[in-house]
Automatic annotation (TrEMBL):
Family: Belongs to the drug/metabolite transporter (DMT) superfamily. Small multidrug resistance (SMR) (TC 2.A.7.1) family. Gdx/SugE subfamily.
Gene (name only): sugE
Name listed for the protein in its UniProt record: Guanidinium exporter
Membrane topology: Multi-pass membrane protein
Superkingdom, natural source: Bacteria
Length: 105
């Protein structure tokens, strides 16, 4: 259950990062509210997951999900550059997350 909670927390991290971008520096009300509410929910779920999972596993996995998700959302929805170097960086993030997950098993 902790892994599912951690995954949802990571997805919410992607949502708040995207909505923060859409808030234009917190000048737009609805995206700002979405940012703050999903940020709080993400942190609460991360804290719940860390009741079972070690900090050294939960936090890197959470940030990895957020980093990879933000990268994908940026490319797909915001038209950000998809270069070989950025894809390699994303692959390294995924590799790190997998290694942290395996190390916990």
């Amino acid at each position: 259950m902790a892994w599912i909670t951690l995954f949802i927390a990571g997805v919410l991290e992607v949502v708040w990062a995207f909505s923060m971008k859409q808030s234009s520096g917190f000048t737009r009300f609805v995206p700002s509210v979405i940012t703050v509410s999903t940020m709080v929910a993400s942190f609460v779920l991360l804290a719940q997951a860390m009741r079972t999972l070690p900090l050294g596993t939960a936090y890197p996995v959470w940030t990895g999900i957020g980093a990879l998700g933000a990268f994908v959302v940026g490319v797909v929805f915001l038209g950000e550059t998809l270069s070989l170097m950025r894809m390699l960086a994303a692959l390294l993030v995924v590799s790190g997350v997998i290694l942290f997950s395996i190390a916990e098993s």
